[in-house]
């Protein structure tokens, strides 16, 4: 009898290899690429290995790595969140600095502003409530009415704790909804009572989700969509003996959602979805099959591609810049987008349709230049392993999604990592694709002029510099979080922090709006100024990349300097803090009349303007200024 064939060799786990060689700290910047290729089991192991690293050692070796300070508390044992969260943040190029609260100490942690979760500099406080906070306090035996009473009390308490954190804490407080374990439903033997319990529980979670509307510094993660996947709610033995309320799969899913939140909060959410067409948005190859032969809604796989198109259209409607990047001739592609009756996506859903035979990485570079956004803002989705591999090799900044295999899974893979997630969506976000399309028209308009000055004169640029109103706060906060290139200090602020500054004596938060002959660009910038002394301080100046090179920043700064002089200020001070992306504005203040006043080893530079000679507002700007909010005079 012949021996059984040997099993195929398993691929080496690169993270485990780095651990064995003692190189994890030295190679930490490689982790995003390495973790991307690992399966779920290998990622779990990687999380355990990475959570053993000292954050201080990693930072000493790589000072530029973004660090996220997270305090974790909740019902029962919550330390299990740290390994998967460490891995998820590493996958996105970030480093976790965790603090894990004591067993079951969530109430004391959040009620006491002197507790560790309120430590200065904490970016996220993650509280994991669970069904136990309710069922531990119902009478025995219990009825759905008892659960309703205790659940109402707990949601009210969580709201009060969110208010305490809003006034005394830093960063963002994160709750999860509370899944209802089958164990409790099954204790009710009649279906009417089970239905009543389900309704009570859903109403409680709905109120918990609604707390976000009352507390700007709160995010509530809805676990229902997570539990619709393969994640199990709990493992009975771990819950009973270790007090761990969530199973490993659900804990990993929560870690993934928290990492998405941290990524968005740090300004690393993606902005552009560059998507292939053939066998990605429709079935078949247009050049071979023709418009009549591609599968869009009918056919064996047509419904899968229709589903993918609906998802992409929905993302575009929520402010994601969707571009088609395809190896095809342009006119047949346009014909399909304009005329194919079964297409969900149309040409105006895309900010740009790029169809040619150039290498896709070259097209992505050109697209980034046209849109004036960094390549690290891109997600590239394609079914071809060759194209995905080439883009990943040539443009490592781009996030590459290989949509291989069954097209019914394309949409799920696109959405799995929440690349475009932000806490809030503003009206400016929703209009972003339209404004970028207008910007591309402006570029075509520019090409018709022989000089930039002639172009700017004909562009009819209108700018408003005004004190930020309450309605402006979400957009201003978002600009601090998402603007990277023209951001002089890269200080990220949450809505409550912006609102506090805007309403604080001795501070000005100024909003910049602009428009031109092609349309309204909306709220595109902000200036934060301290005015509580003889020397005013510009704490930050930021401007959307969509409106660079139009003189807007020079005009607004000149108006601010004139206002400072008129108000009796002796000088205006400002600071530039370097980041990996704002190097193009390092000389912004010197170019506008500021003198250097010292520079630290990390490149942070201080400047001062004595208000003696102030540059003029560029002549092509129509600038309107309002230093006080309407109704405050």
TrEMBL record:
InterPro entries (alphabetical): Acyl_CoA_acyltransferase, FkbH_domain, GNAT_dom, HAD-like_sf, HAD_sf, HAD_SF_ppase_IIIC, SGNH_hydro_sf
Residues annotated as domain N-acetyltransferase: 463-624
SUPFAM superfamilies cross-referenced by the UniProt entry: Acyl-CoA N-acyltransferases (Nat), HAD-like
Coiled-coil parts of chain: none
A GO molecular function held by the record: acyltransferase activity, transferring groups other than amino-acyl groups
Protein name: Uncharacterized protein tmn16
Gene, per the UniProt record: tmn16
């Amino acid at each position: 009898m012949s021996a059984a064939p040997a099993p195929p060799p398993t691929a080496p786990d690169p993270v485990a290899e780095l651990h064995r060689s003692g190189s994890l700290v030295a190679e930490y910047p490689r982790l995003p690429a390495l973790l991307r290729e690992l399966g779920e089991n290998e990622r779990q192991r990687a999380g355990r290995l990475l959570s053993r690293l000292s954050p201080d050692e990693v930072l000493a070796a790589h000072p530029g790595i973004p660090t996220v300070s997270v305090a974790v508390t909740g019902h029962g044992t919550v330390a299990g969140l740290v390994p998967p969260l460490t891995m998820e943040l590493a996958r996105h190029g970030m480093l976790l600095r965790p603090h894990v609260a004591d067993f079951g100490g969530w109430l004391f942690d959040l009620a006491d502003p002197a507790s560790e979760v309120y430590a200065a500099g904490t970016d996220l406080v993650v509280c994991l409530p669970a069904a136990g906070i309710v069922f531990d306090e119902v009478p025995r035996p219990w009825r759905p009415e008892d659960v309703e009473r205790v659940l109402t009390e707990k949601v009210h308490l969580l709201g009060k704790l969110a208010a305490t954190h809003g006034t005394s804490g830093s960063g963002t407080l994160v709750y999860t909804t509370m899944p209802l374990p089958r164990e409790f439903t099954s204790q009710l033997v009649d279906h009417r009572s089970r239905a009543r319990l389900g309704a009570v529980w859903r109403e409680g979670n709905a109120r918990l989700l609604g707390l976000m509307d009352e507390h700007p510094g709160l995010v509530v993660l809805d676990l229902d969509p997570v539990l619709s996947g393969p994640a199990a709610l709990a493992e009975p033995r771990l819950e009973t003996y270790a007090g761990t309320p969530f199973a490993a799969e659900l804990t990993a899913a929560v870690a993934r959602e928290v990492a998405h939140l941290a990524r968005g909060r740090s300004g690393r959410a993606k902005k552009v979805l560059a998507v292939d067409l053939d066998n990605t948005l429709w079935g078949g190859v247009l050049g071979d099959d023709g418009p009549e032969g591609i599968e869009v809604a009918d056919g064996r796989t047509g419904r899968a591609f229709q589903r993918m198109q609906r998802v992409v259209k929905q993302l575009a409607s929520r402010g994601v810049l969707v571009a088609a990047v395809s190896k095809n001739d342009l006119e047949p592609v346009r014909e399909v987008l304009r005329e194919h009756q079964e297409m969900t996506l149309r040409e105006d859903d895309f900010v740009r349709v790029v169809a040619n035979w150039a290498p896709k990485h070259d097209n992505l570079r050109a697209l980034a230049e046209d849109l004036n956004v960094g390549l690290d803002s891109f997600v590239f989705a394609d079914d071809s392993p060759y194209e995905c591999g080439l883009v990943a090799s040539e443009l490592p900044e781009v996030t590459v999604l290989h949509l291989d295999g069954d097209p019914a899974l394309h949409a799920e893979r696109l959405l799995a990592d929440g690349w475009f997630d932000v806490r809030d969506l503003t009206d400016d976000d929703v209009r972003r694709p339209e404004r970028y399309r207008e910007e591309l028209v402006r570029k075509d308009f520019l090409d018709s002029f022989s000089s930039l000055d002639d172009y700017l004169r004909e562009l009819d640029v209108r700018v408003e510099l005004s004190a930020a109103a309450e309605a402006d706060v979400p957009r201003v906060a978002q600009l601090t979080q998402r603007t990277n290139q023209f951001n002089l200090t890269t200080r990220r602020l949450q809505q409550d922090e912006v609102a506090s500054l805007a309403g604080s004596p001795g501070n000005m938060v100024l909003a910049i709006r602009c428009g031109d002959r092609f349309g309204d660009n909306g709220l595109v910038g902000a200036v934060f100024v301290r005015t509580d002394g003889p020397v005013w301080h510009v704490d930050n100046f930021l401007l959307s990349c969509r409106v660079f090179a139009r003189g807007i920043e020079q005009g607004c700064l000149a108006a601010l300097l004139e206002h400072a002089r008129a108000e009796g200020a002796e000088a205006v001070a400002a600071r530039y803090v370097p980041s990996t992306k704002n190097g193009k504005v390092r000389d912004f203040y010197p170019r506008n009349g500021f003198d250097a006043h010292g520079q630290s080893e990390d490149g942070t530079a201080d400047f001062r303007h004595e208000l003696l000679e102030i540059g003029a507002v560029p002549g092509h700007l129509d600038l309107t200024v309002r230093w006080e909010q309407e109704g405050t005079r």
